[in-house]
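Tutorial sheet, problem 5. The two components below are modelled jointly, 609 residues in total.
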Amino acid sequence: MTDVAQKPRRRGRSLASRRARTGLLFVAPQVFGLLVFTAGPLVASLGLSFTNWDLVAPAPTFTGLENWTHLFADTRIPAVLWNTVRFILVGTTSFLIFSLIAALLTYTPRRFVGVYRAALFLPYVLSQIAVGVVWRWMFNSQSGPVTNIVEFFGVPAPDWLLDPATAMPSIAMVVTWQTVGYGMTLYIAALQGVPTPLLEAATIDGANRWQRFRNVTIPIISPTIFFLTVTSLIGAFQLFDPVVAMTGASVGGSGPATAGGPSNSTRTIVLYMYNQMFNYDEPISGLGYAAAIAWMLAMLIFIVTAVQFAVGGRFVHYETERAPRPRRRLRGKA
Amino acid sequence: MRTARAQTALYHGAMIVLTFAFVFPALWAVSMSLRTDENMFAADQLIPHPITFEHYARLFGALPDLWRYFLNTLVIAVVGTAGTLLSSSLAGFALARIRFPGRGALLVAMLLTLMVPVHATLIPQYVIFRELEWLNTPLPIIVPLLFGTPFATFFFRQYFLTLPLELEDAAAIDGAGSWRTFFQVFVPLSGPAYLAIGLLTFVSLWNSYFLNTIYLAKQNSWVLTQALQSLIGRYQTEYGAIMAGVTLVSLPILIGYLIFQRRIVHGISMTGLAN
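Model answer (structure tokens):
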């Protein structure tokens, strides 16, 4: 009797613990990766930010807060931050708006809509270097098509990438052009989830098109708006490839060290970090200073994201009643 | 009736203009790569006449190691994708389907990691890889991927959550443990998820530039994006050769996009599940 009662319980416990062990084994590579390639280096990076190292010396020299005080005094830091803000003002906002417009134009099933979607999404799969190189020519002030189109309308074309005032907005336009298909795709999925009865009910209540969009559609797709805002801002802070492709020098080497012009108007945080990482000429530079810049970047991203979660929570509407499972199962089958 | 038709016509007219704006640069790049130098800036050359391959010949002449950059890129993209798929799907499966201590904490840690920019972990990694004499080899880029990426792991977790609970029960009745349940029941059922995340990972590795430019400084270890970037400095305004480079780098992705377009777009909309 006791035997019978105990046996299954003991076996049950050992089964659970065996499963738990398997679970740990399954996640072991990922946990190892997170510790060795993310957590460890993140801490080590902070440590390095208190040192000076040019890679020639056998080990870094501890310099205390020198890098950090220099960072706050370095006039190039506010300049690169301002460049990022200029990118966000033009690029991130236009990305969020235009991808919603693109989704609104293509989310209802109708003729050729698949072709339109495929075309709008196409630039997203191409390399930012390839796209940047092509747009560099599109913006060419003598023979570039963009210049020709603008001048066709009788407007004098700006110098695009060659003018400090327009270079960053031009890059932002290209990044928006390239990523709009991605935003569109996520918005389409969200728009298709707006329940038709809700829109019909609003119509019966006398809501016009704009009111339905503003008061029904927007709240329901607000989680997607929030997701895209958070992720595109994280991306904006890390801008690098398009700037190198569009502003890298056209004489001699064209690597990242030559990019960021004209007059440093497109130098981003990451570009500056890259240049400091391999710059050992200034007294405060090299790996230590680059690590400080990288940590500043990480903290900026963290703060901006945390603020969005704090503020966004009030505007984002999550439908808790709707069980997400059945919908996903359907998608998985398709 | 007439207004409805007019509206439809207006809609398609606008969409054709828009489509053109998104496809045009790619078409123009291919077109320029096939034009003679005299015709480079002529407006009537969208379909080049005569067609010339001299820019491609020039490109291979200037970058005799082009096949090598192609191979380097391919190795990074293939091995990196395979490693990510294996490790991330294992971890994603456990996070979705197996109860083990620390599961909640791991999930939170992974979501936080999504916020950490690669740059904040780059410098110590660079030092370590330099110490290991891995610079100018694909290892610094491939090896971290072999342990999975938080993005892919999270994606797989979300996917495995959607599969019916009865699957494990049936497998357990057949006497299968977690390993067999995973490899013989879940993996075969998850083709769409593997294809989606596999394509996205492959494309992003094929197109990547930043990490490569850090780790692969020596010219014979370059990948294609680096070779392409170097053309700007080499050819300045010789657009034919530069556009030939753009075409060659993009062609495999373009072909893949034509074949897998639905899968890729579907995969992207699945990543939106993260919210």
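Marking note: Chain B touches chain A through 106 residues (CB under 8 Å). Full credit if you identified this.
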